[in-house]
Automatic annotation (TrEMBL):
One Pfam family named in its UniProt record: FA_desaturase
Domain note: The histidine box domains are involved in binding the catalytic metal ions.
Major localization listed first in the record, in broad terms: membrane
GO MF annotation list: iron ion binding; stearoyl-CoA 9-desaturase activity
Protein's recorded name: Acyl-CoA Delta-9 desaturase-like
Organism: Bicyclus anynana
Length: 330
């Protein structure tokens, strides 16, 4: 998954570079100090929020609001919205659901859907290369958050111009979010989450640091873990030739986005997982509920036969049913 991009770059990678130039710049890492400072301050503020959350400073109703409503809704805006609906087109959504997802997505402040999906499509198309925005071959820190602290690699800028985003640009809702993103994300990501807890008497400081900042940093790290941990630590039951892995811890933290070996093998599957256990895949549960009430439709998923064939052809043998360690029935 891609994540917030705090650099104020235009939507297209306009800086052209030829291959010689790219080679020259390959070893250079240019730190964007303003991003380093902003992200550092954000984390200091989040620590203040964590302290307030864990001590008696925070009202129980505020804790409930943040943990059951604030964090999950922002997360779903990314997982069910920017990721599964808009980046991968793994299902279709009717207008009310699109609007709901866009509101939740904007509250997550991980950049507009168009920018997020552009980075994510680059990630899938050029995985583990210099054109992958968070290339995991550059290490845990780079793929987790370091990629937001340095200038983009020339290969990423060059190839980024070729990625097709015309389907998302054609959507007036997404263009609206893109155009007014700074204003909308401040309102939905900071102002509203800070204001709501004050309605039941929460202190303004607590409301700000817990409901706005801590929620933001938690969901950021959730997204970032998919790019880092879920590209490093886990099994590869579907395709052993790629870096993404199945990581249950990341799945738990990210509402179901850690089944990453499956997801990179079948990126068009709305479940982003084979088994889709609801306890680790809240996003699937959300989409399924939306489908039941008629707001989501055309859910795409891989058939068991296709999955089994793929496991036997390219898996690492760790699959519970079709892996090499399978104990045959006598
Ligand atoms: Zn994806
Ligand atoms: Zn990935």
């Amino acid at each position: 998954m891609t994540s917030q991009n705090v650099q104020s770059e235009p939507i297209q990678y306009v800086e052209k570079c030829n291959s010689a130039n790219a080679t020259n710049q390959k070893s250079k890492v240019q730190i964007v100090w303003i991003n380093v400072i902003l992200i550092s301050l954000l984390h200091i503020a989040a620590l203040r929020g964590l302290y307030l959350l864990l001590t008696s400073e925070t009202m129980w109703i505020t804790r409930f609001f943040v943990l059951v409503f604030g964090m999950p809704s922002a997360a779903l805006g990314v997982t069910a919205g920017a990721h599964r609906l808009w980046s991968h087109k793994s299902y279709k959504a009717k207008l009310p659901l699109k609007i709901l997802l866009l509101i939740m997505n904007t509250s997550a402040m991980q950049n507009s859907v168009i920018v997020w999906a552009r980075d994510h499509r680059m990630h899938h198309t050029y995985s583990e290369t210099d054109a992958d925005p968070h290339n995991s071959r550059r290490g845990f820190f780079f793929s987790h958050m370091g990629w937001l602290l340095v200038r983009k690699h020339p290969e990423l800028k060059a190839k980024g111009q070729t990625i097709d985003m015309s389907d998302l640009w054609a959507d007036p809702l997404l263009r609206f979010q893109y155009k007014y993103y700074m204003f909308l994300s401040f309102i939905l990501g900071v102002a509203v989450p800070t204001y709501i807890p004050t309605l039941w008497g929460e202190k303004l400081e607590v409301a700000f640091f817990v409901s706005a900042i801590l929620k933001y940093v938690y969901t950021l790290h959730g997204t970032w873990l998919v790019n880092s941990a879920a590209h490093m630590w886990g099994m590869k039951p579907y395709d052993k030739h790629i870096n993404p892995v199945e990581n249950l811890t990341v799945s738990f933290i990210t509402s179901g986005e850690g089944f990453h070996n499956y997801h990179h093998t079948f990126p068009w599957d709305y479940k982003t997982a084979e088994l889709g256990n609801y306890s680790l895949n809240w996003t699937k549960l959300f989409i399924d509920i939306m489908a039941v009430i008629g707001l989501a439709y055309d859910l795409k998923t891989a058939s068991p036969e296709i999955i089994e064939k793929r496991i036997k052809r390219t898996g690492d043998g760790s699959h519970k049913i079709h892996g090499h360690e399978e104990i045959p029935y006598e």
